[in-house]
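lol ok so funny story. i was supposed to be doing the assay writeup but got distracted and ended up predicting the structure for this chain instead. priorities right. anyway since i did it might as well share w the group, maybe its usefull for someone
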Amino acid sequence: MKYNRILLKLSGESLMGTQSYGIAPEMLEQYALDIKAVVEKGVEVAIVIGGGNIFRGLSGASKGMDRVQGDYMGMLATLINSMALQAELEKQGMKTELLGGLAIEPICKEMSRRRAIEAMQEGRVVIIGGGTGNPFFTTDTASTLRAIEIKADVILKGTRVDGVYTADPEKDPTATKFSTLTFQEALGKKLKIMDLTAFALCEENNLPIYVFDMNKTGNLLKVVSGEPIGTEVNKG
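and the output, tada:
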């Protein structure tokens, strides 16, 4: 395997499938089976999921809601998604550990580096919800922070697009795909891969980001095996 320990970042919207909101059972099952295939190869896996399929703090703030209150609601949305994925993983026979930026007994213990690493070393899939536990930070930043804490080899950003393009390939048919990019190239081209705080943390800590299509069955295993199916962003 190319990577021994990964942080898989999933968007909340990806859990919607063809629905306009909420959680699609078929997407949970597909993701769980793909994650299981990787764990069975001996890869240690931690996961951070967004909450945009349920609630976004920024969208609430744009409509007049207090930003701090909205962000905490968004953190709770990520925990709902995390619990759903945990249930599906366990249904598929996997052992899991749910940790949170917010400790909510009896749902999850507070995230700590030691807890997460010990759980992964025991063969558990670690799911980290609740963002960073602080308002004004996105799940992009949360996933970067967690990846650095657990000493992950890479952040795997699972999307519905098979990499990073010169433009949105769903809108521009002439868009071309990058196989690799440096952090500075991505910033210079104003490519929206992760928010600036997350990007700066990755660059400072020499943590590569790999963007790939998570919605295609088997792609996660291909990525950890080293197949070049997406786009890697690194220090160069």
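The mean pLDDT is 95. The CA atoms of residues 52 and 114 lie 29 Å apart.
back to the writeup now i swear
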